[in-house]
Design a protein that fits this description.
Number of strands: 17
Largest sheet: 7 strands, mixed
Length: 414
């Protein structure tokens, strides 16, 4: 019998299942044509709830070095995401009075998608990015980037070299960290006195309410409520003084943190939004174990709905293709057992994915123009969080009667 898995925050043994999505390959391990004859490794996608701290989490099945050292996700290929980041940069510079004397440091800085907007305002920037291939793109764009995994030791090294972050940013990285305590402890070390932390990550409340099980994949180790993330930061001497609810990635939080017992630059006190969100999460049941136990049925309902739709279309001799090759799409397709018999192909704007095949399902990935050539009846939007942007970009499919479809939280023909 295997030893119990400890919670990555409080170390209590994990005993309660949140949802079990079966076996799946790493969601960003796209298959190159020359590797089609080789086997893939499938890992359990079994998510647990810690009965003590209520952190929803996926056990570490593969080393982060294997997942993130050569990464297929480049943030700059989403126009709406870039617009979101440009607005954030303008907002935070004004709110906290940031200037040339303030260092902006981003953890998991990807291809420089965000730091470019601070550099354009003449603020000093530094990116920390573990994936060498995407860090190289940032460097070529003039964004100083260190190829490292971040944690307490990296933070100490940065401080020894004279780096202290006045604004420490992390967008969609907190969920990707297996050693959560080491990561947050590192932020405490590298944050300058009076400095501000902002972190963005998908909100567990929205995931549960809207059946977003496809946002669960091996690269996402943790799924946070505001209650739980607040406790994690407090355990490392960091106070959350504000929180914003965002529509990105199907519903995210942006938290604002500072050193406990200090006032951050530009801070006007703890926002009422902190207590408001805590109260709403409590009302939704997120502070007790019982609310988490019905999520597995929610995922099964989405699966049945998508399969019913695809079976009906195929029985009527219709054609369905995909748009996008996101990690969430790979979770959805593998959990539902959908391959080329249901989905002819998918397309993606990223040339790093074109010509490859989706992990597990082996569905081919083409450039978006393929849709205009083959004129399918339906386009299944896999990155449903970007459906507005995609519908606008691919509006021409309406000219032959084609329609867009999303599967989460339920089948919806747009």
């Amino acid at each position: 019998m295997k030893d119990p898995i400890p919670c990555r925050f409080c170390a209590r043994p994990l005993e309660t299942t949140f949802v079990d999505l079966g076996l799946s390959p790493l969601s960003n391990s796209y298959v190159k044509p020359e590797n089609l004859g080789r086997p893939e490794v499938f890992y359990p996608l079994h998510v647990f709830l810690c009965d003590a701290c209520l952190l929803v989490q996926l056990p570490e099945e593969e080393a982060p070095e294997k997942i993130f050292s050569d990464y297929a996700y480049f943030s700059s290929f989403s126009d709406s995401w870039l617009e979101h980041c440009e607005r954030y940069a303008a907002q935070v510079v004004e709110r906290f009075g940031l200037g040339k004397e303030h260092l902006v440091m981003e953890l998991a800085s990807n291809d420089g998608y965000l730091l470019q907007y601070f550099k354009a305002r003449d603020l000093p920037v530094l990116g920390i990015e573990p994936a060498g291939n995407v860090a190289e793109v940032a460097e070529k764009a003039g964004i100083p980037t260190r190829v490292q995994f971040f944690g307490k030791e990296t933070a100490k090294q940065l401080v020894e070299e004279g780096y202290r972050a006045d604004l420490l940013v992390g967008n969609n990285v907190l969920a990707h960290v297996p050693d959560l305590n080491d990561f947050v402890a590192g932020m405490k070390v590298v944050l300058a006195p009076g400095g501000v932390i902002t972190m963005e990550f998908p909100h567990l409340l929205r995931l549960m309410q809207e059946g977003q099980f496809d946002t669960i994949y091996h690269e996402h180790f943790s799924y946070f409520s505001f209650h739980t993330v607040r406790a994690i930061f407090a355990a490392h001497g960091l106070t959350l003084f504000d929180v914003e609810e965002l529509n990105t990635h199907g519903g995210s939080l942006r938290i604002y943190g500072r050193h406990e017992g200090q006032t951050a630059i530009g801070e006007t006190g703890v926002s009422h939004r902190v207590e408001d969100l805590l109260a709403r999460e409590e009302e939704a049941g997120l502070t007790s174990r019982e609310a988490y136990l019905s999520f597995a049925e929610t995922a099964q309902s989405v699966k049945r709905g998508l399969l019913r739709f695809l079976l009906k279309v195929k029985e009527e001799r219709g054609t369905v293709v995909g748009y996008g090759a996101p990690a969430k799409g790979n979770t959805l397709l593998n959990y539902c057992g959908i391959r080329e018999d249901f989905l002819d192909y998918t397309v993606d704007r990223s040339p790093h994915k074109q010509g490859c095949f989706l992990p597990g399902t082996r569905i081919p990935i083409y450039e978006p123009e393929r849709i205009l050539e083959t004129k399918p009846d339906y386009v299944l939007i896999l990155p449903w969080n970007l459906k507005g942007e995609i519908v606008d970009q691919m509006a021409e499919i309406r000219s032959w009667g084609g329609q867009f479809v999303v599967a989460v939280p339920e089948i919806d023909v747009l």
